[in-house]
Amino acid sequence: MIVANGPDQGEARLLTVDEHGRIRHLPRRALGLLFSPGDLVIANDAATLPASLYGSHAASGKPIEIRLAAWVAAGDPTRFIAVVFGAGDHRTRTEDRLAPPPLRPADRLVLGPLAAVVERLLDHPRLLVLRFTGARADVIAGLARHGRPIQYAHVPEPLALWDVWTAITADPVAFEAPSAGFSLDWRILAAWRRRGIGFATLTHAAGISSTGDAMLDRRFPLDEPYRIPATTVAAIDKARAAGGRVIAIGTSVVRALESARAGSGSIMAGEGMARGRIEQGTRLRVADAILTGVHQPGESHFELLRAFADDIMLDRISMMAEAWDYRAHEFGDSMLIARQSRLPAEDHDLVTSIASK
Prior knowledge:
disordered C terminus, QueA-like, alpha+beta, 2 domains, disordered N terminus, Thrombin, subunit H, 9-stranded mixed beta sheet
């Protein structure tokens, strides 16, 4: 069941994997009982923008959908990197969506109350830089009136904007929901507080997850701005000093934390830009564990998980999630994966036996 901020906690499930590869299957409401005093949980408090805009290509009159995908300059609501589709809507799988009409620089787009121009194309017929014309205040008002949340065919009913806001949303800078945050509610946060587990936030402009075009999807994630408060940096330092772990709620938190790490190993407070992929071979310096959704191999989110666990472990996790019928996508179930330690040879048999049950 989908409620205003994700699946009902009583129904959602959680697959946990500790640093030694031991796997457990729990109800997600058990999150309040996990972690140890002195640990720190960090979540992304970005609210989701109404980043899907329907309209037409002025020159041809043909229908289009624009999906805003990234900021050109953080906080500037007039210029975005965007993905464009032809006729259709979210009920059609993205990989089956019609191509847009041929676009050229300076082409005008009519998007409800908004007018925009194609500033430039980005080496792919569906990826461009879009500039809204008009005053900033008018653009913001137009997005609020005409825009809708980006959504996909696995949820056929139209979503309202508040359906893609987590319980801790703050500034509207994300293009899709930082959906790992749907696992949080105030009961879980209160339980952590009672047990001496820290909680902090950062703001990361999470981008879109899929365009339906494999070649284009390999470019994701695009560069994404973030902001880390000084209070969050202080909480990380406190947890580290006490021997606690840092648990990231979602891939966007991992990207922000690892991008903000200075050469000395300390985290820098303030604004920055997360660039490139975290993937197999990336040495994680901050996040000890990640709470995330169920992702498929090849997705940028799954590639990030390869920095936490090797492919053998991830294959086992995926097989168990499939065997237990875990729900994928942003309103699905969750996985908690600790950064894997190097197992002694005799422990590999233990991991194998656990995963096969």
